[in-house]
Amino acid sequence: MAAQEEFFEGISKIPYSPNAGPGDVMCFKHYNAEEVLIGRKMEDWLRFSVCYWHSFCGTGADPFGSPTFHRPWNKGTPMESAKKRLRAAFEFFVKLGVRGNRLTFTISYTKLIVLCLSPVTFCFVFSQVKYYTFHDRDMAPEGCTLEESNRNLDVITDLALQLQSQTGIKVLWVTCNLFSHPRYMNGAATNPDCHVLAYAGAQVKKGLDTAKKLGAENFVFWGGREGFLSVHNTDVGAELKHMANFFKMAVQYKEKIGLKCQFLIEPKPKEPCKHQYDYDAMSVIGFLKHYGLDNHFKLNIEPNHTTLAGHSYEHDIIMASVFGMLGSVDSNTGSPDLGWDTDEFPMDIRNTTLVMKVIIEQGGLQPGGLNFDAKVRRESTDLEDLFIAHIGAMDNFARGLRNAVRIIENGLIAGMVKERYSSFSDGIGQRVEDGSASLEEMEAFIMKNGEPSVTSGKQEKYESIFNHYI
Ligand code: XUL
Ligand code: CO
């Protein structure tokens, strides 16, 4: 058997080197996958995933300029390069993995034979980036007909299945691209023409079959063009109902084929539409509850979308979690000074600390994870930059995790918050808490107790204490 082409030449497995210097960016200094924090391994709190579209399909092109990335897998026919891309992606996932200093060799004799044949499998036992995510059309090219597109996807996912079983790498989530093809220019599930909606339905059916085939743990719906550019030509009520009914069809088909994965909706307020229906976490939760879909879906929150909606970075993570709806996170960040979806790698420790605090408090993200829906900058043209970006973001999340653990274990902030709400633990407060109080009772209470005393919110004190941990 001929040895497989190596795409990331000169880059070997990324080690865990906690004492490395500041200029050494090709190693993990904080992410120690096996280390246990509050009863769970770091890798299980973080559940990192690499996204296919930015890291392996991205070209560096922007509205003002042509591609700047010249990737070695973009060679041959579309199907040939799809196969190369997949092999390159798995080489990347495996090389990005790290098991620190504790290497354990648990490999069967048959795997040992395979191991001698393929450089990718060689790293199997060390692999730590466990997950990847993809759109159907990033993995295999769209054909001239649905049948051809499906056949292309079958061929490439056969190879994906093989590489998954050789490496142990799994699919965090699959999604369908229902926004790039011109047929979807007026939306997919919210298109005014049912013929287009039907195409989207057929595509999602295949997407769900693919999720089952590859054992995906989640399936994402991002409402790419589900929204409007002009209210004049849009029947908003009809479109929302069609979208809900589309989701109901997906739920039915998922149950029919026995697909065991979590459905997720990813909110975004704008881009490409002026207004998107899945505006933010609360809009999506309201939509799901209104149409009786809230038991079938959770949310995939992308903080760059949250900030586009005018909220703070952590806002939708918190809102979704409070409603028991935080299913997964597209870990990235924007540039508030630019104001569009820049999909940058999350490198700010304040943000990761806040996100990880919410994730720990809700007991983890499983079956969701932290998916790097992030792209290296157009100017970061080296293949090595893909590694540096992921390593930096993973280390930053590891630090966020450690910080959040210290905040939670120390309990100072939680104690202060508890004290702040202590008036709800007995008497009239407890009756408000359990929903048994009435307005007459409120009036009687005020008649008896008069004006409340004003207490300080102590915001700066909280901020100073938070800063102590990061
Ligand atoms: C678009 C976006 C998508 C979804 C999947 O802004 O975030 O990549 O995550 O379609
Ligand atoms: Co996303």
Description:
Helix 8 (about 195-215) links the parallel strand 5 and strand 6. With about 475 residues, the chain is α/β, with parallel strands linked by helices. Helix 3 (about 80-95) packs parallel to helix 7 (about 145-165). The protein is built from 18 helices and twelve strands. The model is unreliable at about 100-125 (pLDDT under 50). Strands 3-4-5-6-8-10-11-12 form an eight-stranded parallel β-barrel, surrounded by four helices. Strands 1-2 form a two-stranded antiparallel sheet. It is globular and about 85 Å long. The chain has helices at about 40-45, 50-55, 80-95, 110-115, 120, 135-140, 145-165, 195-215, 235-255, 280-290, 305-310, 315-320, 350-360, 385-410, 410-420, 425-435, 440-450, 460-470, and strands at about 35, 40, 50, 130-135, 170-175, 220, 225-230, 260-265, 275, 295-300, 325-330, 370. It starts with about 35 loop residues before the first strand and ends with a helix. Among the domains are: about 140-410, TIM Barrel; about 425-470, no CATH class. It binds D-xylulose and cobalt (II) ion.
- The topology string of helices and strands comes to EEHEHHHHEHHEHEEHEEHEHHEHEHHHHH
Strand content: 5-15%
Spatial strand arrangement across the major sheet:
3-4-5-6-8-10-11-12
Based on the structure given, which CATH architecture of the domain at 142-410 is correct?
Alpha-Beta Barrel
Mean pLDDT: 93
Number of distinct helices: 18
Overall 3D form: globular
